From TrEMBL:
Pfam families listed in its UniProt record: Autoind_synth (PF00765)
UniProt keyword annotations, A-Z: Autoinducer synthesis, Quorum sensing, S-adenosyl-L-methionine, Transferase
Molecular function (Gene Ontology), one example: transferase activity
Organism: Paracoccus aestuarii
Gene3D superfamilies, sorted: 3.40.630.30
Name recorded for this polypeptide: Acyl-homoserine-lactone synthase
PROSITE patterns xref list: AUTOINDUCER_SYNTH_2 (PS51187)
A Gene Ontology biological process term: signal transduction
Similarity comment: family membership: Belongs to the autoinducer synthase family.
Amino acid sequence: MTMELTQHRFSDASGACHVEIIRCPENLDRWHLVTDYLKIRKQVFVDQMDWPLFHAEDLEFEQYDTFDTIYAVATEHGRVIGGARLRRTDQISGKGRVRYSYMIRDACMGVISGLPAGLCATTPPFREDVWEMTRMVVNGPREVSRLMLRAVNAFLADQGAASVLFLGSPAFARMAKSMDWPVQTLGPIASNKDGSFQVFECPVRAQE
């Protein structure tokens, strides 16, 4: 699989699958792709996996889905088949008494509930050069997940990021290692009724 970068749009060798990096206000004309990504999240996480997540109509979204959030959205022949959410770890959102940073940190600090306790052995970072990638979902071939990870790495390298945090199943580590992407675990495998989760940190690799 090859990848071309044109204004943060990545393509596979066939040209059928693409991953776009979408953010406001630069890409408002592409925001409908984010909406379709939120629909897939609802279909997979709520309808199929029965996770008790907030949703309205056919969209799954939460406090970390804001116009300050950046999205990587995968399409095949123009149809959205997956995506992921990107946030810098020094972002703060919300008003009033409750302020949110990013999912992994807030879960470890007890700001949000619903995730297993003890995800991280130490307090997660609050740094401009560390990002978080969550809510990754792909409703398509396995190769799309690999293309998405390569696209996210290339985008973050362009942003000057040093590393990226992931919250996912233990299987994520096997996929990352198969791509020769070093993985460091930041805590033990933690489980609840929704499954098993682990926090990983991967270095952002410089682009050639």
